[in-house]
Amino acid sequence: MKRFRIPPGILIIFYMVIIDIFINIVFHYPTDPNNTSPSALQLFFEYGRSAEGKLSRMTGLTDEDSASIIKSGWILKETEEIEKEKTSLLDKPIVTIYGMSHAVLLGKDMAKLAPDLQIRIKGAAGAVPSWSYAAYLYDKKIIHSDVVILGIMTRGVSLICTTSGATNHFDTVAPYTYPRFYLSNGRLEYIMPPFISLSEYREFFFDKNKWESYKKWLRKHDKYYDSLLFTKSMIDHSSLFRMIRRAYAYYSYRKKEKEVYDDIKGFNKNSEEVILLQKIIKEFAKQARQDNSIPIIYIVNNVFMGDRLFELIEPVLKEENILFLSSHKIIPPNDPSYYDSSSHFIEKKNIELAQEMINLIKQTRVSSSILRGK
Amino acid sequence: MSMTYTIDIYKSRLSPARKLSEYALYVSFFPKILAGPIERALNFLPQITQQREIKKEDIRTGLHQIFMGFFKKIVIADGVAQSVNYAFAGSYRLSWTGAVVGTFLFAIQIYCDFSGYSDIAIGSARLLGFKLMQNFNYPYFSLNPSQFWGRWHISLSSWFRDYVFFPLGGPYGKTLRWLRNIMVTFFVTGLWHGAGWTYIIWGLYHGSLLSIHRLKESLRKTRKKPKNPFKRAIFTFGFFILTCIGWIIFRSNTLNQSLLFIKTILTDFGNFKMNIILPAETALLGLALFLAIEFFTYNNRGQRLDQLLPSTIWTAIYAGIIFLITMSLSNVPTGFIYLTF
Predict the structure, then answer these.
(1) Quick one: which of A47, A210, A295, B273 has the most CB atoms within 10 Å?
(2) Rounded to an integer, what distance in angstroms lies between the CA atom of residue B189 and that of residue B165?
(3) Domain count, chain A
């Protein structure tokens, strides 16, 4: 009697299903939204989940049952938060820094090094220049700062035409939103997203119709929106398909980034993003000066991207006489030993940068006081 | 390939193709047109003219080879590419650990990248019923340079042997004469890779290794291969280190960079700071699995896993490899290294 043999193809599929189930059980992502330290493998297998899927896991009806990333990065703060901040102001010169995590880390070190200054930090995970500028525009209406610092990094430039932390990074999403800037007859204009605060976000997220209308808005205005990456689907349940989705996300993001920044050619100076960045810098400086604040640009040159961002915006900075601090002056961008595993600067170098920024502020404040006859 | 065809006809080793289409297919056969294997007309033309029968075994062998080719390329070669690029960027001073790990990773990258490509090309041809020559045969298990060049990029090294080394006189005649033949052949081999000093010096370096080995062999009365497994392992490891030194020269952007690299390895021992970016976890996992498969199949005369293991086991390994490939798809893809040569 002939022995029955299972075809190898079927066996391979069977094993793949087993591995998929195994991964979903052993590396199951913690359901508690406040668990912020899952293992590296739990994170790895979670990366490919849709943006909506990740948001569902992290968003609760109240702040207590929501992950901290859900609460961060909102441009429009809640009233109590604003009042609380106003009452905490001290009789010191106020320095406010807007930007991504590099800017936040710089601000923290500046606060340690210069107790005679009140350092305010307005940051969001992976904040792009359009977020930072919008945050400044909102914040300046609430609290006047003597010095305002706008943080910009090389990787953020190609993401200027996005509108949310849920579309500008795929692996780790955040729901915060910001306006879509564009140029109209040489003027910097913007379209506001349907919501810009945490409470509004919850209102949209838990209402199916409103959320669908938001997705339609994203499709129309956000260059990085892709429904295959954003919308929750059956694929979310399989680790294999999640990894395929992640591969597609990387492919799609790289393709879009290449239109603005190429490893060999550098920035595409004719791209909408580069033109917008230059305009944002000019407008930021203009607005700050009108408000009697000193504008400073903090340039973060990402690892292995050389000083191309500095080279790109240096002419604008010189033309507009804007103060700046570029990380490449202290940290060689092509030496990875000065960057940690999350691509931030190592602590020692970050402190040096913070000191440099403080020196820049103090020298400028002294000279501007002399000029004003104080 | 056209040179081979012309020389073989001139030397009366081959009859000219009867039809232009046969010749055209020989030179433009898609799996091998980009980066080989450099197939001889003697082997390929008869396969075009004869009736081909695609057997079940051809499909099985072809698919296995393509699958392993993708594994080597996507999981390992692309997985370590970023670390290698940074290590050889030359923009900062590497530590001892950085230089050693960077060199080892490049040795792995170039092998997996090129043998992966060859596997995909040979496997694709096999699916169409063509048998292309083997291009790699466990080169890093070589005990000496002579073995290495019989196992690394076989189609190219045998081409230089047959069309450069032997016409120069081969290994015959006075010692100085055959030493010259070796050095000239390797000089041309280096030059073939690119008109740069690093390639030429790399070629001459391997020529020198082979010359020293041949001289040593000629002084010996009997040719004995070490049978003791421990001794064999030491010889293999020793020659792997020599091969890696060659790869430093080959991969460096300038000769100065390669000298600095070698100097760091020789003099900076003790600086264990890891200052290169580590490869992706999937690449490390894939590398461990790949090394295990290489050892296992090498010790079993190069047979495939499906020929050596019960189907319940090899299919599980293959399912794991599919997962590793999927996990690696988000790595930054890199072009095949040998496409530039």
Answers:
(1) A295
(2) 11
(3) 1
